[in-house]
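Can you make up a polypeptide sequence alongside its tokenized fold?
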Amino acid sequence: MKNSVWTILISFTIFITCGSSTLLFYTANKYQEDKLHTKLKELLIEELNLVDVTVDEIENDEPLFGEGLGLDSLDAVEIVVLVQKNFNVEIKNMDEGKLAFQSINSLVDFIKERQA
């Protein structure tokens, strides 16, 4: 179903005037970004065995460690592997990890920058 909606959206772009193309491009990018947020949340829940946590309960700007989602250093190692395996993005050192692991938003930004 999602693919057919996306196909319709892409097909619709053919008929959009040039003045609206920036808005449509933004909408398409926002859709892909939202999809990445959801995918990351699903992977974290599954790979880290976050029992009783749903995708909707994880806020995009919520801290992943400490008082936020409550992850620990062992979870950080698993996230490094998860990101490399699923997004082909390597987190090379602790400094990169600290920036990337602040929240779902920061992890999405990190992945998008490295995939660009």
